[in-house]
Structures are given as structure tokens and as C-alpha cells.
Amino acid sequence: MKPKEIDMVKLRGIIGEYKDVKWGLIPLLQAVQEEFGYVPPESIEPIAEALNIPPSEVQGVVTFYAGFSLKPKGKYVLRVCRGTACHVKGGQSILSSVKKHLHLEEGETSEDFQFSLETVACLGACFVAPAMMVNRTYFGKLSPDKVNNVIGQYEKTEGDG
Ligand code: FES
């Protein structure tokens, strides 16, 4: 499976909404990423044009903020917490289990674009440490077994859209 094709009409529509908007760069990048799952490199030039700023500035912002990605991500993005509260409750074994199950390292996406693996400094769910997220869903009080069950649920829904 390939990442979603970039619908240039849709992309230009989103960019058009922010044309000449002062301080529009971050919200525009967020809107683009929300739609496509990442900031397609081909969107850099038209964004710069619409906001009247150099492409290097757009590129710089996308590269600087960890929340933006220039590469397509998987349908399911797993974010495993590497914060202190999770670490002391065995976060390391959670991360190892995820890596082993998905055969991915941090920052990688599976070849079929089903899964991406990331780590974050804190998910804000320390009270249920160790924790991880799959897209916007939280999973807490994890164990290696639970991790396998959670990932298994998403593997079963492959192809469901
Ligand atoms: S340290 Fe893991 S959620 Fe806060």
C-alpha cells in the first residue's frame, strides 16, 4: 500500500484559505498536516507564495518543530513515552516490545505504511505510566503482553479504511 496520493486541488484549497494571513504559517502547516498526515514537500513553495515569505522559512519551521513531518507516516502512529514516570515503571520494556512486534526502530514507518513508531518526552498521562498512544488514543498501565494485544487490535483492522 502506498501513502495517500496528494490531492493538489485540496492542497491548494487549504493554502488559499490562509493567503496573506498574518501569522498564518503554523496554523496553515497544521491544517495541511491534519489533511495529509504530513507536510508534503511539494506544498512548501505554494505555502511560501501564499504567505509572501521565502520557501526557506517554511522549510525551516517544518524542520524545527518536531510536530511537523515532511515524510508520509503510517496509518497508525504509535507514540511511546520515554519520560521519567514511564521509565521507572518499565517504559523501556514497552518500547522494546513495540519495536520487536512491529520490526521498526524509532522514527521508522513500515513499508506498507500501516505503522510509524515515535517516542515522546511525556504524553501527559504519567498517572497511568507506562503509557503510549496510537493516533489519538491513549493506552496506559502497559505491559509487554498488553502492548502485543493493543497492536494486534490495529493489525486486525488493517484495510478497514
Ligand atoms: S512520563 Fe510518560 S506520560 Fe508522562
Topology, element by element:
Layout: H1 8-17, H2 25-36, H3 44-51, H4 55-64, E1 76-81, H5 84-88, H6 91-102, E2 115-120, E3 132-134, E4 137-139, H7 144-156
Parallel strand pairs: 1-2
Antiparallel strand pairs: 1-3, 3-4
Helix pairs in contact: 3-4, 6-7
This protein binds FE2/S2 (inorganic) cluster.
Keywords: 2Fe-2S, Iron, Iron-sulfur, Metal-binding
InterPro entries: NADP_DH_HndA-like, NuoE-like, NuoE_dom, NuoE_N, Thioredoxin-like_sf
Organism: Desulfatibacillum aliphaticivorans
Overall 3D shape: elongated
Helix content class: 40-55%
- Ligands bound to this protein structure: FE2/S2 (inorganic) cluster
CATH architecture of the largest domain: 3-Layer(aba) Sandwich
First CA to last CA: what distance?
12 Å
Order of helices and strands: HHHHEHHEEEH
- Which topology of the largest domain does CATH recognise? Glutaredoxin
At the fourth level of CATH, the homologous superfamily of the largest domain is Glutaredoxin
- Quick one: biggest sheet? 4 strands, mixed
**Which strand order spans the largest sheet, edge to edge or round the barrel?**
2-1-3-4
Helix-strand makeup class: alpha+beta
Radius of gyration: 18 Å
Low-pLDDT runs: none
Strand content: 5-15%
> How many domains make up the coordinates?
2
Q: Tell how many strands the DSSP assignment holds.
A: 4
CATH class of the largest domain: Alpha Beta
Mean pLDDT: 92
Helices, by number, come to: 7
